[in-house]
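Assemble and predict.
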Amino acid sequence: MSSSAEVSGRAGPPGHSVARPAGPALEVVDLSKRFGRVRALASASIAFTPGAVTALIGPNSAGKTTLLKSIVGLVRPDDGCVLMNGTVVDAGGAYRRDVGYMPQLPAFPPHMTGQELVDMIDDLRGFDGEPDESLIDDLEVRDEMSKPFGSLSGGTRQKVNAALAFRYRPTVLILDEPTAGLDPVASLTLKRKIRERREEGATVLITSHDLGSLESLAEEIVFLLEGRLRFHASLVRLLEETGQRSLEAAIAELMLRGRGAGDEIRPKRATTPDVSVGDDTARDDPGLANEEGVA
Amino acid sequence: MIGRAAKVMRYQVVDLLRGRALVGYALFFAAATSGLSLLGGGTARALPSLATLILLVVPLVSLLLATTTVYHRGDFVNLLLSHPVGRRPVFVGIHLGVTLPLTAAFLLGLLLPLVAGGIGAEHVADVAILAVAGVLLTGVFSSIGLVVGLSFDRLARGAGFALLLWLALVVLYDGAVLFAAYRWAAYPMEGPMLALMALNPVDLARVMVLVALDASALMGYTGAVFQDFFGGASGLLVAAACLALWMAAPAFAAMRLFERKDL
Amino acid sequence: MNTLVLLAVGLLGQAVTPQPGPSHPVPPQARTPDGFASIGEAVAAAAPHDTVRIAAGVYAEPTVVIDRPLTLLAEPGAILTGEGERGLIEIRADSVTVAGFTLRDTGLAFTDDRAAILVEESRFCEVRDNTLERTFFGIYLANSGDCTVRGNRLEATGDRETRSGNGIHLWYSTRIRIEDNEIVGHRDGIYFEFVEDSEVMGNRSTGNARYGLHFMFSDRSSYDRNTFADNGAGVAVMYTRDVSMRENDFRGSRGSAAFGLLLKDITDSEITGNRFLDNSVAIHAEGANRVRIEGNEFVENGWAVKVMANSEDSSFSGNNFVRNSFDIATNSRRTYSEFEGNFWDRYRGYDRDGDGVGDVPYHPVRLFSLVVSQNEPALVLQRSPLVFLLDLAEQALPMLTPENLVDPRPVLDPFDTPWRPS
């Protein structure tokens, strides 16, 4: 898809335009998925900014987790595809070599210890590099790694989850509610780690109910509603658009507008660049929503 | 791909060995075999009872273990597929990781006591046919079990359906066949009867057992079709080939389901 | 075609066993010139009760007719061939012995019963230790008595019934002993019709196209310790009284019309200590009256016993029934035969008083056996759990199977038989 090159050119808010390594360009095109009667994704096309942290925001069952799982390959979309660096990702899953995924609720085999999990994945990946074990120490789970996963508390499981996701120094991080269940110290440690990876050029996709956390991390906001892309712009633009001071207020504003406008959500100044509008024309051309943003 | 599948299988087998089901299954057959041959007066007398046991128990255990594996190994599969491992090697690993341990448990349980007790030379062929039939049944029903597990979202429903399926194939189907035999008794039914056997893997395995234990009776049948079918090795080979198909088709179906499954 | 044929004729005055010693030159007592050109000439020249020795070599000549009491002793390697044209030896006198020949190639005959050795109206004859190859009929006895056929080996390649005759064929004969012969590949291995007071012992009759032993209208005869294996239709014993069959081995008669032993109109006879192994039907009894069937071993047959309702007062006791697909089948809801005190491996009763006899009677006719008799293709359901359930229900509450076909005293451990190493 032609859009990927343009996307990287347009990337990020001004503060981040300083040169730094940019991770892979990740893009979903026309992604649709139904679960029975429920439409989880409806022709969603999003080009994620390489090397940036993109927050996926939306109410419950807006399709955030489905989108993330589709990218990882755990959910098989009915239609559309996932592109990495402009190529459709392969069914064999080799692209996941560069992907670190933190599922929302880590449900690892309960009788395996963290260490066994790590050893097994090392083995399956054929990984013989130097793993990134900093989180094991920073989150203070070294001792917990020798206990069966099923016996760990929710927070500790989440820490092991995080340690595993960052272990192979991925250039794409897919983080579904990464701080859920973490105490404030651990939460801060993890966020610091995310920033660190971002500085090293990783492309990060993150969801969270904790909009405060997201505000401190995210450079780009993707707003999903009922499986449709409603809004994709930088955080700065979003705040400008909505005239709000916080992400939480801005999102609330978006949701209220969405309610008023029925099926459509339009920013106040629809013509303003840097704001993409998820209308029908935009959906016809996967690149269009982003191109509008190119000033 | 093969290397990955082998690794997945290894972890799957290790996991299966942690549970007691497999060991229990092997011990069950060992106990049944030694019990029947010790109390009942030797290998020869144990064979018919063993045959019945194999036809009943192997499908049930293989079906249930494979079906429940789909649910119990959901976490494992989820974890693997978050990493650079394709769905196909994961499926192959899981399938073999269920089928091979089941096969090993069955064979060890059946054969160890017989070998220890000394199989009479004249019964080696019969025992071999029983063992092959059991191995094929294991493959067939672990494949079908994966299809069932992948088709139902919840364990209770999957296991319930598996039980119903077992009951249908083991008893109800034969009832329908018997009914058909009477209903269309006026027509030449030997060919159709054999065809009906081919549609049920339990019956196919039973036909193999019949070649081993009841060839004399089957040869006494007046029709030429049975004479040809049961007269030589051809019946045995045809039944085994059909069972191999019965193993391949559900395995393929299960793989397609798995490749499309949302986790 | 004959090469040099040496024929030695020893004139010993009496038909006695030949003297040991070198066969050539001729024994000193010779009183006629040695070296006949053919066996026929030697026989013609011999006086009654002489012994004729036949040296090694191939003889092809017109059928040798022995019309006086003689002993013909062939030495190893003495071969008489019919060149596919004729019978070989005819015995038409009493007290004739024919021994040690290799007899071959009678050719096929459809108008006469061409045989390697024909014995006609002879008494006290003996046919022994001959080897018969590619003969139509082998040894044919008619209207004879007090003869012995022993230790012969008869091998034909009768692939079809019509292309082969019987191995040892007896017709209207009395007091004949058929002993230790081996008969392969004929139509019927041994054939008895209108034979009385005769014995068939220790023979092996295998791979014959029709019956291993075909036995009709032959009262007061017995056959013991024979092996009948892999014959097309097994053994048939018909229209006879006072026949005893002991310790024979009936094996491998498989096919739609094959029986280990077919009994048809047999009266006052006994069948004891035999083994029936791997036959489609071990014993098919039609009109078997007052037949005692005792101490036999029925193993791995399709049906151990099919007994028709026209059999009366026959008894089955002390037999072992092991691994048969069906133990007993019949064609009626009543039976006039008696089953008591047998060992049935299917019996699942108990023996609370420990006397070795089950406390619950055993019904040896399975419901499924009835099903199969009405609907043969249903046979493929054998060993189905469904069939097991049907049989179980019928055992508990017999509704369809013969109510009085029951063993009231089923024995819990197999009996000792000659076939069961203990």
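Chains A and C do not touch (no CB pair under 8 Å).
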